[in-house]
Amino acid sequence: MAMLLQQKPEGAGIKLVIAKQRIMIGRDPANDISIDDDLVSKEHAVLEVALSQSDESKLEYYLQDLDSTNHTYVNDERITLFRLNNGDMIRIGMTNFRFVDEENGNLEETAKLHKTWIPGLYLKKGKK
User: Fold this and answer.
1) pTM for the model
2) DSSP string of 20-75?
3) DSSP 3-state assignment of 108?
4) Which residues does 43 contact at the CB level (< 8 Å), separation at least 6?
5) Per-residue model confidence as pLDDT tens digits over 47-71
């Protein structure tokens, strides 16, 4: 399962599961992901899911900027079209998302996280 995790300075963000082949992102409420930010264009970017050409049992995720005024960034690099990888950081306007692809990512690290009594804080336990 792949998802976008909205990153917020105060901690916990919103988990957006990628459940459609094409997800529109922008300021307009008609978009699949609507971002209320004046720096975001009405139709800012699109995330598309495609079968891998090298292995048809796997999916690939592409983020495309739709000629937005303030551009789309992945890992602090301006993009027009970009194939997303697990852990990539996406910036649209003032909003940051982390792309998580559990199918192609390393789940071992996630399994070692333990919830603390502080809301939104997780610690990694294991060997030092």
Assistant:
1) 0.77
2) SSEEEEESSTTSSEE---TTS-TT-EEEEEEE-SS-TTSEEEEEEE-S-SS-EEET
3) helix
4) 24, 26, 28, 31, 66, 68
5) 999 988 888 788 999 999 999 999 9
